Amino acid sequence: MADPPLDYRAIDDVIHGRVRLAVMAYLSGAESADFATLRAKTGVTDGNLSVHLRKLEDVGYVAIDKAFVDRKPVTSCTLTDAGREAWIAYLDRMKSLLFDD
User: Mean pLDDT throughout 75-87?
Assistant: First the structure.
């Protein structure tokens, strides 16, 4: 009997996008980061990063806080509990695809 195909359909498409994957990976270790830090870490434009952060925020994976510090706007991004659970599930799913017995 043939082995069943690898179930790639369970991969979280929201996280799986390259920029969103980088953001989730960074935030999973940093807990929180400002917009400028995430832009520098991902190497994308402001507009591109904004679009990806909005997608992560819309599904509840990140919380975005906008404030003023010394009269300058500062946007901070934090991984939510749901985001951390989704990240762990994503990593587990990828591991099962890579190390399928």
Answer: 97
